[in-house]
């Protein structure tokens, strides 16, 4: 029913390019905060017929159209309206900006794409509005992303170092966070490596995103979310030190690296935090762990 995704696919490279430009993400976050827009990356979608007609929505159509803007975590469809939850707030921002009020001439209708203004969403997404005794902050959905400051080059393989052989690093963090919980691990914490070099392919064309390599963390349990973030931060710092050592062995000055975290804690708002690693002198061997062998 929706316009062919080919009409939208030309936006993908441009959107990904925008996201990678310096300062764009910060400007998006600043604008959303100034407008009081909720920081959960969820949009409400409807097709409004100019003659008062209603249209039944199909998840497959919605996924093809909205995946152009970034990775989708979940879609919930209720006949004539749908809720699309992205992993990244900036994906939701660009989708809303470019699709809202778009005219579909052959349907004699307009697209209506609006921000979901409460944390109560029908169906399975309603977990955002549920109370949980392990959540002690302002929302039951906590997400963040750690932007990785190193390109995934063949010689250093930063993505593989982060995940670990056969995913051992991710499994270890999930295991730590799952202790004391009587439920499935994937219901407690989710860790995802996404972006350029991650190997994860998305969208109708099954392509790797052009976004900067990043690690996503999400949980509805605040304590477990904090624990996972601490472990991910330590892991990134370790890999950064290994990278500095890698550069040192090649006689290349080590650039100043940051552990950059962009946090979305529901109605509390988006927060950005960066921690610099000390910059070693050119002739000084970086301190830290020895180079690990990849198997």
Notes on the structure:
It contains seven helices and twelve strands. It has helices spanning 6-20, 24-35, 59-66, 89-99, 158-163, 168-178, 222-249, and strands at 42-49, 72-78, 81-86, 103-104, 109-115, 142-147, 190-194, 201-202, 207-208, 214-219, 258-264, 270-276. It has two domains: 6-124, RRM (RNA recognition motif) domain (Alpha-Beta Plaits), CATH 3.30.70; 132-276, 2-Layer Sandwich (Ribosomal Protein S8, Chain: A, domain 1). Helices cover 31% and strands 22% of the residues. By secondary structure, it is of the alpha+beta class. β4 and β5 (109-115) form a beta hairpin. α6 (168-178) packs antiparallel against α7 (222-249). The strands form three sheets. The protein has a five-stranded antiparallel beta sheet with strand order 2-3-1-5-4, covered by helices on one side. It comes from Blepharisma stoltei.
What is the element layout, followed by pairings?
Blueprint: H1 6-20, H2 24-35, E1 42-49, H3 59-66, E2 72-78, E3 81-86, H4 89-99, E4 103-104, E5 109-115, E6 142-147, H5 158-163, H6 168-178, E7 190-194, E8 201-202, E9 207-208, E10 214-219, H7 222-249, E11 258-264, E12 270-276
Antiparallel strand pairs: 1-3, 1-5, 2-3, 4-5, 6-10, 6-11, 7-10, 8-9, 11-12
Helix pairs in contact: 6-7
CATH topology of the largest domain: Ribosomal Protein S8, Chain: A, domain 1
Assign the CATH superfamily of the largest domain.
K Homology domain, type 1
Secondary structure tally: strands: 12
Coarse morphology:
globular
Radius of gyration: 21 Å
Order of helices and strands: HHEHEEHEEEHHEEEEHEE
Strand order of the largest sheet: 2-3-1-5-4
Share in β-strands: 15-25%
CATH architecture of the largest domain: 2-Layer Sandwich
Distance, first to last CA = 48 Å
> Which segments are poorly predicted (pLDDT under 50) over 5 or more consecutive residues?
124-140, 288-295
The domain tally reads 2
Q: Which structural class should the secondary elements be placed in?
A: alpha+beta
The main pleated sheet reads as: 5 strands, antiparallel
Instruction: Provide a count of the helices.
Output: 7
Helix content: 25-40%
């Amino acid at each position: 029913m929706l316009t062919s995704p080919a009409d939208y696919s030309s936006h993908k490279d441009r959107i990904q390019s925008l996201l990678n430009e310096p300062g764009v993400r910060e400007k998006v976050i600043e604008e959303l905060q100034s407008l009081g827009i909720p920081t959960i990356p969820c949009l409400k979608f409807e097709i409004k017929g100019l003659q008062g007609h209603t249209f039944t929505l199909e998840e497959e159509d919605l996924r093809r159209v909205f995946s152009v803007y970034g990775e989708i975590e979940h879609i919930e469809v209720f006949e004539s309206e749908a809720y699309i939850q992205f992993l990244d707030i900036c994906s939701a921002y660009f989708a809303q900006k470019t699709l809202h009020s778009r005219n579909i001439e052959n349907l004699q209708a307009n697209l209506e794409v609006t921000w979901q203004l409460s944390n109560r969403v029908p169906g399975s997404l309603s977990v955002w509005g549920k109370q949980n005794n392990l959540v002690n902050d302002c929302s039951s959905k906590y997400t963040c992303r750690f932007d990785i400051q190193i390109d995934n080059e063949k010689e250093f393989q930063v993505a593989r170092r982060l995940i670990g052989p056969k995913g051992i690093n991710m499994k270890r963090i999930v295991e730590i966070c799952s202790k004391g919980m009587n439920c499935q691990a994937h219901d407690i914490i989710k860790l995802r490596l996404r972006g350029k070099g991650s190997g994860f392919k998305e969208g109708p064309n099954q392509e790797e995103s052009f976004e900067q390599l990043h690690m996503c963390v999400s949980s509805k349990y605040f304590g477990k979310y904090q624990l996972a973030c601490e472990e991910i931060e330590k892991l990134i710092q370790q890999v950064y030190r290994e990278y500095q050592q890698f550069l040192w062995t090649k006689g290349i000055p080590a650039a100043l690296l940051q552990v950059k975290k962009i946090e979305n804690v529901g109605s509390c708002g988006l927060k950005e935090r960066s921690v610099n690693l000390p910059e070693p002198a050119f002739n000084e061997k970086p301190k830290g762990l020895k180079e690990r062998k990849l198997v």
